[in-house]
Amino acid sequence: MTNSPGQRGEADAEANEETAPPARAIIAGHAGFADGLVSAVEQIAGTGSVFVPLSNSGLTSEDIEERFRAAALANHVRVFFTDLPAGSATLAVRRLMRKDPRLILVTGANLATLLEFVFHAEEDPVEAARRAAEKGRASLVSHGGT
Amino acid sequence: MAVVLYRIDDRLIHGQVVVGWGQPLDIDFIVLVDDNVATCDWEQDLYRMGVPPEMELVFADVAEGVRRHASFVADKRRGIVLTPDIETMRRFVAGVGTVKEVNVGGIHHRAGRSPKLRYVFLAPAEEVELRALIDTGVKVTAQDVPAARAVSMSEVLGARAEGTGK
Question: pTM of the full predicted structure?
Fold first, then answer.
């Protein structure tokens, strides 16, 4: 289930107060895209809590932007990962970036992107995001066929 | 006819439009008819970043959209006309006079709107606008993605009225 802004860090932190790493980035996209990726990160690395999953489902453009802004504020993060470069989540973040140029956006995120980020989340967020984007891009390979 | 879809979508350029409809309909251009976006360079740049380089994006206010509609229809390529709301589409359709069908793709929840479909929420004034559009003889259906079933908005609005009190 995708968290609402601010919800993250309350229930989760209570259960894993001593072990769960804090939120470092928001992952946002269509339907259950973010939930699925965070679940996969949790299974592989046990660090799903690094990401706050958000969905654009059922929201107007204005509401998506406000939801993302509130989540970034509540979780003290400035890195966003989104799905489609043309998607409404991406457009919402770009609007936020106009008001706050410190925000960092990586579009086209995949599991390899996020796994790279979690292992460097303590570094400078600009550099961690750049490395994550490179890793995600490099992971897209076509095999087989004639 | 080069304009293959007239769509109302409050998110304008986004995944459902560019990918969901753009690919199966083999779309070459999108005409974004919005009085506000037509006057804002920054918003236009934002939306340009959302379409692939081979897809042309045209910005127009309602008056310009109406004025240029014949050229969009005569274009050998395939295009979508997109408006952010019912009122804009109703004015555009009234100005053009030849639009036969309109697709309602997404009017999402906000305060004052009530649910009609999973992706269509209408305020009372918007419902009046939509009925006015339907009353001009335009076939208005709701369909968020091509694989979904098109739903007659006339039936959706009619069923709501008849169902009152039951």
Answer: 0.82
The verdict on a CB contact (< 8 Å) between A63 and B110 is: yes
CATH topology classification for B2-164: Fructose Permease (3.40.35)
How far, in Å, CA of A122 to CA of B40, rounded? Answer: 39
Q: Is A139 on the interface with B (CB under 8 A)?
A: no
Q: What DSSP state is assigned to residue B37?
A: G
Which pLDDT value is given to residue A10? Answer: 45
pLDDT in tens, A73-106: 999 999 999 999 889 999 999 999 999 999 999 9
Per-domain residue ranges for chain B? 2-164
Taking any CB pair shorter than 8 Å as contact, residues of chain B touching chain A are 10-15, 18-19, 42, 46-47, 49-52, 108-110, 118-119
Who contacts B31 (Cβ-Cβ below 8 Å, separation ≥6)? B3, B58, B60, B65, B68, B72, B79, B80, B81, B82
Burial class (CB in 10 A: 0-12, 13-18, 19+), A57: middle
Q: In what order do the strands lie in the sheet with A25-29?
A: A51-55, A25-29, A79-82, A104-106
Whether B138 contacts B100, CB under 8 Å: yes
Question: In this predicted complex, what is the ipTM?
Answer: 0.76
Q: At what angle do helices B153-162 and B124-135 cross, to 10 degrees?
A: 120
DSSP A3: P
- Which chain A residues are closer than 8 Å to B109 by Cβ? 58-60, 63
Give the residues across from B142 on adjacent strands.
B104, B151
Runs of H (alpha helix) within chain B? 15, 41-48, 62-74, 86-96, 124-135, 153-162
| DSSP secondary structure code for residue B17 in this structure | I
- Residue among A123, A26, A33 nearest A70 (CA): A26
